[in-house]
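Morning!

This is the sequence you dropped in the shared folder:
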Amino acid sequence: EKGEVELLEQETKQLQKEQMKIKDTLKTVTDEGKLEKLRKKVSEEKSKIAEDEEKLTKEKQELMEKKQVATKERAEKLYSWPLTVLIIFGIIVFGLVVLFFIGKNIRAKKKKV
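The structure's back. Tokens below.
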């Protein structure tokens, strides 16, 4: 009987060891499955981030183009109205100078007469 009990205890211990090995293997397999899922999620997130960065780059480029166009239009407007004012001012000054000399000539003719 004692031999059988010892034999059963040894078999029980052996079975417990095998059961622990099986549990460790299952845990490892489960962990690897979880890791694979996490890797997939990470790759999906990376691709989403890359797409978002690409979209942001395009939007930034479009905004820069719009800014350049707006700056160019603003510059054209700024250069156009000062030029107009300068031309009008020149015409007025020219007219005043002409009137001044005409008036001077008229006074000079009156003095001679």
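Headline: Residues 26 and 111 are 126 Å apart (CA to CA).

More detail when I'm at my desk.
O.
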